[in-house]
Amino acid sequence: MKWKLGIDTGGSYTDAVLVDCSTGEVIKKAKAATTKEDLNVGIESAISQLEIDQVKNICLVCLSTTLATNAVIEEKGAAVGLVTIDEPDHHTYPAAFRFNVKGKINVKGYEISPLDLQSAEQCLTFMKGKVEALAISGYASVRNPSYERQIKELSDKILGIPVVCAHELTNVLGYYERTVTATLNARLIPIIKELIAATKGVLKRKGIDATLVIIKGDGNCMVDSFAEERPIETVLSGPAASALGGMVLSNENSMIVADMGGTTLDIVPVVNREIPVKSCGAVVGSWQTRVKAMKSRSFGLGGDSYIRMDHTGSLNFGPERAVPLCMEAEKNRTLVEEIKKMSLCSNYHIVGRQEMDCVSLFKDNVNEELLEPEEREIIELLKDGSHSLLYLSEALNRDIDSLKIKKLLELSIIQLISLTPTDILHATGEYTQYNREISRIAVNRMANRSRMSEAEFVEYAEAAFTERICSALVESLLAEQGIDEAYLSDEMLRCVFDREQPNRLADFNLKFNVPIVGIGAPAKIWFEKVAEKLRCRVIVPQNSEVANAVGTVSGNINEALEALIRYDSHIRKYIAHLPRRRVVFETLEEAVSFTEKELLLCGKDFAEKLGVKKYQTCIFKDKTETEGCCGVPNHFVELKIKVAISADTKNMSC
After folding, report:
1. Rounded to an integer, what distance in angstroms lies between the CA atom of residue 357 and that of residue 33?
2. Which stretches of 382-435 are DSSP H helices?
3. What gap in Å lies between CA 128 and CA 92, rounded to an integer?
4. Number of other CB atoms surrounding residue 62 within 10 Å
5. What mean pLDDT comes out for the span 577-587?
6. Segment 42-51, tens digit of pLDDT
């Protein structure tokens, strides 16, 4: 008997399943809290609960994660330096430092003006010790990557840190999106490296000697070493595993898979058991990337979404994640007593934070030289455990809104603890795994501020969160029909499904033709409320709480490498733009022959990086010509050549 071990490391929970390779049956399942401060603990806890007695039967370990997606949405990750080459316009990028150097390559791949290596050297020297990774993006680098490569060589000598070149991640034109992709990739490197190291460490301690593969955002797999180089590929890995798991567990042909985790609500349409892939690249948070991923939408709505009340009394949920108060109080009982003793005066209003906000120390090994004195004081106060912002403001004699916690949160040195939907469920008694007392205290304080009774506030909060989930589902449905999301407002979406508004002049008949398959730990409770609100069919299948882990063992290998051959009428020669270089040929036949051989060699190297020995390759060609007329023959414009690499994960180990 052969088994696959599926692991899904989410923002809040780490799930593990043992699946029979032959039948696909879930033999055992387990769930443990994700311990971001030390991922080893959560992963080991989940695997230990499986109580695997025959580890030699495990032939493949499959991993999915939302850590990369969550890091992008929450604007966290490594401090990245960005060097752009001949950027045509000034844009904002997710980088700590950004410099532009001169050196022009045109879209045909010709070097128009030389690269300013002296300026590049000065920029790199300035960033030494200030950044953890570097991204390099040159205009038209997909047509000729030589300038990017030269700066990478320079960086290896000066910085000695991981470097990401934009041309290595995508061959599609679109300078801004390509640069965003490279920058985010660099930003995510330490996050995915830490996850892979933790997983491999646990597997070794458990005596599990099997190939480790990671699910990508398009539902395909890659080996661990490849993921370390291209962590951006794991963005939307969680939603991809959700879709695969939802299909396997529900046995439906067409559906809307809605996966609610701790941080995000991921919604994926499935039609006839096929999941569409975004041709233009995935949107993650506010960033348009060139990452190939399933057509899904991620919303900052989860069981651990940070709940805030604005000056009007309206509630906002996420996208920032907070550790639920009930969960933290289970570990630190003194926090309950601290919260009981400390409260705000009724006439005092916090602008940027909430009365129940607390923080705890997340990282021990912090370079305190980069921090301001007050930030160091906060770290010192948190060394004995989590504390409320009220406690910190009193200890430091500072106003709560002026406490210097923003940078500490962004760098994940500390983590936020506050009221979440999980706390709301604890207050109502619908879910009581952790400390219910602190959740009720928090709800009571929020109720007093909004001049409601505790029962009224809970009903109000649950209805508001359910509405946000409904809005997300309706928005995803309308976007799938091709409606531009720029035209979709919360008010408009609410009109579509809210039939309980008084004095309505018209009703919209919204009908879901396919079921919503709800998966994730909080799915059963919240999606039952959604079903009532939207009057639609909702399926919460057996093993739904570990659906992502089930989805991880369903992925395969499917990759493609592309090259472009174009005719240059000025020099009357054919130019081949290959993944590694640019080559000029006298004839089209020479260009095609060389390109096919080069792509097959690149494909072989690529397959080895993916950890695949047995694979299939197919060559596809797409020729573009201008239409001839009046007896004039068609004129060659370009030829796209693609090599597709495919393999079953069974060929890796099973």
Report:
1. 21
2. 389-396, 406-410, 421-428
3. 22
4. 27
5. 85
6. 999 999 999 9
What does the pLDDT look like over 586-607, one tens digit per residue?
888 999 999 888 888 887 877 7
Query: If pLDDT is split at 50, 70 and 90, which confidence band does 455 have?
Result: very high
Coil, strand or helix: which one is 97? Answer: strand
- pLDDT of 654 over the 50 cut: no
Percent of residues, the chain, with pLDDT higher than 90: 35
Question: What does the DSSP 8-state code read for residue 504?
Answer: -
Per the DSSP assignment, residues forming a β-bridge with 269 are 256
Residues with Cβ within 8 Å of 516's Cβ and at least 6 positions away in sequence, in order, are 255, 256, 258, 473, 527, 530, 531, 534, 536, 537, 538, 539
254: exposed, middle or buried (Cβ count in 10 Å: 0-12, 13-18, 19+): middle
Structure tokens at 338: 């601290």
Distances (CA, A) of 363 to 108, 383, 415, 539: 48, 10, 9, 40
Please give the Cα distance from 75 to 286 (Å, whole number): 10
Question: Any idea which residue has 């090599």 for tokens?
Answer: 643
Sign of the alpha-carbon torsion through 440, 445, 448, 450:
negative
Tens of pLDDT, residues 283-336: 777 788 888 778 888 788 899 999 998 878 889 998 888 999 999 999 898 999
Domains located in the chain, CATH noted: 3-73+191-266 (3.30.420.40), 305-452 (no CATH), 557-651 (no CATH)
Proportion of the chain in helix, strand, coil states, percent, rounded to 5 = 40, 25, 35
Mean pLDDT across the chain: 85
Number of H helices, E strands in the chain: 19, 30
Q: Max Cα separation, the chain?
A: 92
| Residue 143 contacts residue 577 (beta carbons within 8 Å) | yes
Whether the CB-CB separation of 78 and 59 falls below 8 Å is answered with no
What is the value of pTM for the model shown? 0.74
